[in-house]
């Protein structure tokens, strides 16, 4: 019997109700709660014995990737913003349930140097670092440029791109041939929303950084790729990530007429982290639900 499923019908199809959380937003309080593959992802040993660090790993896409990596056999360290401990503890429990080691790293990337600290702490705990997933981000929407605080711009660049430099510089000391780096940008890297004055620009920087790092690390036998998600239902949307009323139509303009769920992104990260993608480097994989993207 066929296991075919209509992708338009797989997950929540409508917009989302308005919901207020005092930041940082927690996944376990969202309505509906995002699907990160807790009950569905099945591993097959693709990452057995590896040691991974995932930034923004307590919720959303990072959480789904952490669960998938653990079920594929990896030890997983997850970085998260202080205040998100309840989400992080849930992920830790799920990782350890798979018989893998888990490490929680509560650090605010707005503070300079924390991107490097999480790498050194991961290596201290696990003895090695084989997979680095740079996924943490700040996204705050504004309708008018005149309303954009310059401190927000500085913070967004610090969190979204400068922390990546910190982590990669520190990680270079430990990454061996066969190791992988995976970045997260978004569709805004290609088609920037006019409400994301700073976030979209950092996405463009991340895509360029990914291509640059691929060329730099290739002679060392280390691959670097990125993922550009479309509209995905995560706590990022509740921390100022949408304009007023934006949740009601979130994801409805994609070809599949719905937002994505974090569980739908995780297999792409597994692919890029595993030997299955041994001839893929310098690529940005778009997982967008059919969002139209121009690369001209």
Compose a concise summary of this entry:
This protein has 296 residues and is of the alpha/beta class. It is 29% helix and 12% strand.
Describe the structure.
With 296 residues, this protein is an alpha/beta fold. Helices cover 29% and strands 12% of the residues. The protein has six helices and seven strands. It has helices spanning 60-71, 85-97, 114-126, 150-171, 199-217, 266-273, and strands spanning 51-54, 75-80, 102-106, 131-134, 180-184, 223-229, 284-287. The protein has a seven-stranded parallel sheet, with helices on both faces. Helix 2 (85-97) links the parallel strand 2 (75-80) and strand 3 (102-106). Helix 1 (60-71) packs across helix 6 and helix 3 runs parallel beside helix 4. The longest helix has 22 residues, at 150-171. The model has no long low-confidence stretch (mean pLDDT 95).
Question: Key terms for this structure?
Answer:
about 300 residues; alpha/beta; 6 helices; about 30% helix; Oxidoreductase, short chain dehydrogenase/reductase family protein
First and last CA, distance: 43 Å
Please state the CA-atom Rg, rounded to the nearest Å.
18 Å
- The general outline is globular
Order of helices and strands: EHEHEHEHEHEHE
Largest sheet: 7 strands, parallel
Topology (SSEs and partners):
Blueprint: E1 51-54, H1 60-71, E2 75-80, H2 85-97, E3 102-106, H3 114-126, E4 131-134, H4 150-171, E5 180-184, H5 199-217, E6 223-229, H6 266-273, E7 284-287
Parallel strand pairs: 1-2, 1-4, 2-3, 4-5, 5-6, 6-7
Helix pairs in contact: 1-2, 1-6, 3-4, 4-5
Biased composition (Basic and acidic residues): 1-21
Region (Disordered): 1-34
Organism: Aerococcus viridans (strain ATCC 11563 / DSM 20340 / CCUG 4311 / JCM 20461 / NBRC 12219 / NCTC 8251 / M1)
